Amino acid sequence: YPGTSAFLVRRETGTLALHRVSHGFVPGEITQMLLIRMMLIIAYVVELIGKGTYTAFANQCRKSRPQFAAILDEFGDHEYQHADLFRKAYIDNFGGTGFGAEGFWIGVGKAQAYLQYFCPMVFKLWLLGRLEKLFVDNTRDRGNKESNPFLDVLTTILPDERKHADLFLRYRETSCTGAV
Known about the structure:
Layout: E1 5-9, E2 16-20, H1 27-60, H2 66-94, H3 102-115, H4 121-142, H5 149-174
Antiparallel strand pairs: 1-2
Helix pairs in contact: 1-2, 1-3, 2-5, 4-5
């Protein structure tokens, strides 16, 4: 739309900028870059919530199963590292210093995990395993059809997510039952 403000993709850097346009632009490029930007932010938040969830679950079973609690702590660290990868990808491609509110999103994950306190640990971890498996399957289906910062990070974290899904889906056979 001539003469209106719009986000344009800078071809030399691939970043977005607010410019006055006097003639046409390519809406598909704008939409794709905004979508990638939003996916990086959402993925960052989800990974931090996952960190809080794993930490809370580890605290819930630390006395009864300390070795499993250590595994959950390790998985929480993985989630934090994944969030950092999404943050770095965002900064590298769109600038800025990061997102902030890290402690808040980790707290949200802990709060939702504590709200599930009376659910059996078997169920909570089976559900986490299903979610991780869904992520792994969806990421694998994308293949190498395209490349963008979001998909590059997904490819990097895929082995960790596969490890999480496998463990949680097997946990049902070896775990204690009841609230932990």
